[in-house]
Amino acid sequence: MTVLVTTASKHGATREIAKEIACVFDEHSVPTELLDIDDVTDLSSYEAYVVGSGIYLGNWLKNARRFLDTHAAELAQRPTWLFASGSIVGEPPVADDPDALRPGLVERLVETTQAREHKLFAGRLDTSKLGLLERAAVRVRTRARATTATGTKSIAGPRRSRDS
Ligand SMILES: Cc1cc2nc3c(=O)[nH]c(=O)nc-3n(C[C@H](O)[C@H](O)[C@H](O)COP(=O)(O)O)c2cc1C
Asked: Which terminus of the chain is more exposed, N or C, with fewer CB under 10 A?
């Protein structure tokens, strides 16, 4: 049995989490193949799937969402776990940020793939390595969330349960 562990990662944090996941499988003598999501073409040789994405502006990365939609039927046929790496809250980032993802996203991804779980891990955010646009996006999102905390306006929407 081989497990496919695949991720979409812009700055490497999600890929590193995937490596750790693959190590855990390895410790239990479960073979894995670790691939970037854009390099996966055929899912038929795997018995289970772990798919992850970095979170950007409350969403999974586009190529990861496309992957789930394209391969939904195959993912639904075998054990599938989803994870995301995010959080712009806390230093270092916290894992239990209820507003990390936009409302309804986890439910939709789980429904599409029939995944057993969607897990949110604390990611890594090194603003010194971001370009101007990304830095600005983080600032806007952080401010919006600070406003959310005061109860006035929300980009991410109301607080809700992340796990399905
Ligand atoms: C422009 C930008 C937007 C982000 N938006 C969110 C967000 O909406 N929610 C969140 O939890 N984390 C957000 N993050 C934090 C990233 O999800 C986190 O750094 C993640 O670990 C990045 O994964 P990667 O290195 O695999 O791309 C954002 C980071 C950047 C740079």
From this structure: N
Q: For the chain, what are the domain ranges?
A: 3-149
Closest CA relative to residue 100, chosen from 33, 26, 44, 162: 162
CATH number of 3-149: 3.40.50.360
What residue owns the CA closest to ligand 1's atom 4? 56
- Give me the residue label for tokens 């309804």: 104
Q: Is 54 helix (H, G, I), strand (E, B) or coil?
A: strand
Q: Residue 126: its pLDDT value, please?
A: 84
Greater pLDDT, 128 or 87? 128
pLDDT of residue 154: 28
**Exposure class string for 96-106: b at 16+ Cβ within 10 A, else e:** ebebbbbeebb
